[in-house]
Every structure is written in C-alpha cells, then in structure tokens.
Design a protein that fits this description.
Elements (H helix, E strand, L loop, with lengths): L13 H40 L37 H26 L1
Helix pairs in contact: 1-2
C-alpha cells in the first residue's frame, strides 16, 4: 500500500462505532424477541397438527345411502410419508441459523454503508 492510497480511506470515530454497536445490540434484541415469538407460534402449530393427526380412532361419518352400514370400521392411513435421506433440522436450530444470517447481513449492510460515505 502506498501512502497516497491511505488518503481516501475513512475510519469511523469512536462515537460512530458506539452508535453502530448500540444499533446492532438493539437489532439483536429485537431479532431474538421475534425469533422467540416465531418459535412459540411454530410450537403451537405443531401441537395442533399433533392433535389433528392423533384422531385415528374417530369414526368417519357415513352417509345415509352407504352400503357400509353394519360393517366394522377399519381405519386407514390417508397420508403416507416417504422416508427422507437427509436429516430434518430442528426448528430451534433453523431459527438460530436464521438469526445468525440476519446479523451477518446487517453487518455487511453497515460495512457497505460505511464504505459508501
């Protein structure tokens, strides 16, 4: 690097660095609250799906003209899940990765905004 190359480089002041740090801390807290809210919502949805899928013993109402009257009810599986070759990520791990990516993107955007000055 030549001394003339350093003339165009601008560095952040201590106040600017503190402002960036406060903004990042605030963003991370907001993001954590959002992630917890989303995780709770997903847990509620999973709970409702579990309740819906556990209704195997509930008989299906038959219509009046059915020829099944008097025959015993035999439950059948309506959905067949094929085994997956890749492991499924737990929701908490997915949310953690999402949070880290959002923090990384924020840092990239802040760095780009400093470079654009």
């Amino acid at each position: 690097m030549q001394p003339s190359d350093l003339e165009g480089v601008a560095y952040a002041t201590a106040d600017e660095v503190d402002g960036i740090r406060r903004s990042l801390d605030s963003f991370m807290k907001t993001q954590e609250q959002h992630n917890l809210s989303m995780e709770n919502t997903l847990d509620k949805i999973l709970g409702k799906l579990d309740k819906l899928s556990s209704r195997e013993g509930t008989p299906i109402p038959e219509d009046k003209g059915s020829n099944m009257k008097g025959k015993p009810f035999t439950p059948t599986n309506l959905f067949i899940l094929a085994p997956t070759s890749t492991p499924i990520l737990p929701i908490s791990m997915f949310l953690l990765i999402l949070q880290e990516l959002s923090v990384f993107m924020l840092l990239v955007m802040m760095g780009l905004s400093l470079l654009m000055r």
